[in-house]
Amino acid sequence: MMRLVQLVMLLVVLLAGHTAAWAHKPSDSYLTLSAMSADAKDSNAGHTITARWDIALRDLDYVLLLDRDGNGELTWGETRQREADITRLATSHLAITADNMACPWAVAAPMALDKHSDGTYAVLSLAAKCPVISSTANTASKLKALSASYSLFFDVDPSHRGLVQWLTAGKVGDTPTAQALVFGVDSASQTLALVTPGWWQTLKQYALDGISHIWIGYDHILFLLSLLLPAVLIRRAGQWDPAPTLRGSFAEVLKVVTAFTLAHSITLSLAALQIISLPSRLVESVIAASVVLAALNNLRGTVDKRRWVMAFVFGLVHGFGFASVLADLGLPQGALVLALIGFNGGVELGQLAIVAVFLPLAFGLRATRFYRVGVLTGGSLVVAALASWWFVQRAFQL
């Protein structure tokens, strides 16, 4: 009976893995918004917002059924024929308001296609003219509030995000400053800053992005937890026994987490600074493989006392995975170091929150059969099976 239950669990996980394989690449669109202030000498001038919007063809096909012949391959002809529908869908789910007045969208250039690491994207070029409220007949008042509301695909995929880079310049000729924003179901409406964000705002924004990513980065979490599960146990005579003290378990957890943090911080920095770059397919495949190996190690305890070495070696690869997400968010060139520190710090805070919940709970259950058989052995088998499916999908681009 127990084996039958385990087989059912594995089957369920494998089926669920089909939709969750790209733990780093959920449904995202990439939007660059640029603003140019009105000319103060022209009372009829407005604030012009231009936009480049990259939307995944797979997401558009799911909603608009672009693949008319049903052969599973989208051609440029099939996509181009639906340009009006794609534009209408997009602009109906993105609203810009200036001082509570709508800024209507217009097409600035024909639709194009572009390649991203996870597939082909439709590229929309749009422009919106925002009115300027005049305080006198000859003087245009300054814009006080600019905001954006984003809801693309939220009705069919609540996990979808809009990754926005907001560029603004105070006057014509000024160097634009960048601000990264993430639109989701819980953050569908946000204010677009009209002045350069301070260092604290930049640090805070990217720290929140880092926390958010580690909590939805299921492969990172499963890799770390697979290494931590044996931390409250001791390997003796080919079996796992409860660790005698919390202090010893804490030391094991500290070594693993420190090694993982140090490793991914190194490669995250090198990749973000464009010193080293690796193919996304290779990185994602190795990350999935690292989860498999970490989980299977718990069955035999092959790497027992030096799990921190495994954490460091594979943590170097995980850092490149973090870097791809940071690049997608958009890096402000004027505050690159702050963005990097904030994002990495957010990742660490997210990890610490997970560890803070895991350690006391695992230590309290370490002597039970439920933990040693159900959680350690059964859980590791489930994780290994799920990550194996991720590896197959990523390595062979299924």
In brief, what are we looking at here?
By secondary structure, the protein is of the alpha+beta class. The protein has eleven helices and twelve strands. It has a six-stranded mixed sheet with strand order 5-6-2-1-8-9.
* SSE sequence, one letter per element: HEEHHHEEEEEEEEHHEEHHHHH
Strand share of the residues?
15-25%
Strands, total number: 12
- Order the strands across the largest sheet as they lie in space: 5-6-2-1-8-9
**What's the CATH architecture of the largest domain?**
Up-down Bundle
In DSSP terms, counting alpha (H) and pi (I) runs of 4 or more, how many helices?
Answer: 11
**Unreliable sequence segments:** 1-24, 38-45, 133-141
Major sheet: 6 strands, mixed
Helix fraction bin: 40-55%
* Overall average residue pLDDT: 83
Integer tally of domains: 2
CATH class group of the largest domain = Mainly Alpha
In CATH, the topology of the largest domain is named Growth Hormone, Chain: A
Query: Between the first and last Cα atoms, what is the distance in angstroms?
Result: 34 Å
Helical/strand content category: alpha+beta
Radius of gyration: 25 Å
Shape: globular
Structure description:
- Helix content is 50%, strand content 21%.
- The chain is of the alpha+beta class and 398 residues long.
- The protein has two domains: 31-196; 208-396, Growth Hormone, Chain: A (Up-down Bundle).
- A six-stranded mixed β-sheet has the order 5-6-2-1-8-9. A four-stranded antiparallel β-sheet has the order 4-3-7-10, with no helix packed on it.
- Strand 11 (233-236) and strand 12 (239-242) form a beta hairpin.
- Helix 1 (2-20) packs parallel to helix 11.
- The longest helix is centred in the last third of the chain and has 30 residues, at 336-365.
